[in-house]
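Project outcomes to date are best conveyed with an example. Our students and postdoctoral researchers have been running inverse folding experiments weekly, and each run begins with a structure described purely in tokens. The record below, which covers 170 residues, was selected by the lab manager from last quarter's runs and is presented without edits.
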């Protein structure tokens, strides 16, 4: 099964100038805790923006062009095919962005771990796609250096016409 892990602001902004628009240590820790021991998929641009190693995880990078070099990772040449081939997998596979990768993966995703950040980023250039039929499973409010944010665990109804949960507009 595929799960999305993402942080976005009030306008669904996820990035600016190829990087995260904020630095929230608790969110980085949250990402590490959730993804540890799992498969994690990044788009090539997001992967290039990560300066640290990602020990303890099996890292996949979606790239149509890049040859393997440097940090250890597995290459996905056709992300659409990867989604189709793994959609019934029993293990949780984390989709970790960015915008292009989230957009393609969203129809396949049941669970979303969302960090909802109480900011309005100026000059953002990467956004999370519009989501509907989200059911909030849990919510934890936090604050760091004056910035408020919430960790949400959500489920998305994949099949239409069978939505019994609370429809939430984030
Ligand atoms: N806030 C968050 O939670 C969060 C999380 C992740 C990322 N971000 C932000 O999102 C931004 C980056 O997003 P982005 O949309 O520009 O880039 P991206 O999704 O990270 O990567 C795009 C790349 O993925 C590869 N790709 C796309 N479609 C593919 C396919 N069908 N098969 C195989 N590979 C494919 C291509 O790589 P090649 O060009 O190598 O072929 C493409 O250039 C950054 O600002 C980053 O910081 C934010």
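After processing, the design step wrote out the following sequence:
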């Amino acid at each position: 099964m595929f799960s999305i892990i993402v942080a976005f602001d009030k306008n669904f902004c996820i990035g600016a100038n190829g990087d995260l628009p904020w630095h929230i240590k608790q969110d980085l820790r949250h990402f590490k805790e959730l993804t540890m021991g799992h498969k994690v998929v990044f788009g090539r641009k997001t992967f290039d923006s990560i300066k640290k190693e990602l020990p303890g995880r099996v890292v996949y990078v979606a790239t149509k062009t890049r040859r393997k070099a440097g940090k250890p990772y597995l290459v996905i040449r056709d992300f659409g095919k990867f989604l189709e081939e793994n959609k019934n997998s029993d293990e949780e596979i984390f989709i970790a962005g960015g915008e292009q990768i989230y957009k393609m993966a969203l129809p396949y995703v049941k669970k979303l771990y969302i960090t909802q950040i109480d900011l309005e980023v100026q000059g953002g250039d990467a956004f999370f796609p519009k989501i509907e039929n989200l059911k909030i499973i849990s919510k934890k409010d936090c604050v760091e250096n004056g910035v408020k944010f919430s960790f949400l665990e959500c489920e998305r109804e994949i099949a239409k016409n069978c939505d019994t949960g609370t429809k939430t507009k984030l």
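The radius of gyration is 16 Å. The pocket of NAP is lined by residues 6-8, 14-15, 18-20, 43-46, 49, 62-66, 76-80, 96-101, 126 (CB under 6 Å). The training component of this project remains on track.
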